[in-house]
């Protein structure tokens, strides 16, 4: 994890609220167009595709380094992703189901009835409870194991067995957020043994207050926030605030966008300091680049590279003079130099011939 300054500028709530409003308007227009064109809106096909909300964050360096991460990062949020997911799955093509995987030695220490009685108050249901050995035996065949895993939208697993699951479940299961197991604690830290209370509290914490995020090896992170129709505007804004704050506090984030699957990306944040470093680095790498475009900023004509032109499109218009201050200074210096050369040339041309050739 990259060390960052704690003085990072937070994203104004008004900006996030405006972006969420625009996404809602975009989806509403799209659905109205589909209905007007006579497309079938029965079922959830179009809504499922169009209303998935993603937060895209671009880091200055790799989020996870060169080592592949099997454990999901859990970010605190105020409004559960899983509660509305389960509620809306009633009309969706796939039911929301939850799987719990425990150690072979612990699976008999708690029953489905125990889980139901302890979790029902929070409307949490564990649909299937199995041991690691069950995966090895009952679902030994690859096809049966894959079909079994694909049933679930949330998989919870004892933290002590999480590292053995990639081999048992197969790499493809870890390509999807839904089928990537989330580690939970099952052992009491004080007694060092299986604890029903610890297990129940861990399940509640994930289900009610955590958002799972798969950290990539690269610099671009895709955070799935659920669907627009799962949340009211205020709740979704609060979740976005929580996620962006975590990212800004823990990584050297340079850009953050929000979008649905088919909407344009809406910029929420850029880090001017990081971008300055990147621009400088790109200039060093691309010194041979001759493709420049002239753009007028604050009345000054400046040259922008491809990267800088992309930045111009998402930057706050009121801060262009700050973001491109180096470019403006260079343009001003260049203009002053040209003017001085022009004056010297004019003075020389106006000198009498006798002075020009005087020995």
TrEMBL record:
Family annotation (Pfam families): Ribosomal_L1
Region (Disordered): 329-359
Alphabetical list of InterPro entries matching this protein: Ribosomal_uL1-like (IPR023674), Ribosomal_uL1/biogenesis (IPR028364), Ribosomal_uL1_3-a/b-sand (IPR016095)
Gene3D superfamilies on file: 3.40.50.790
Stated name of the protein: Proteasome-interacting protein CIC1
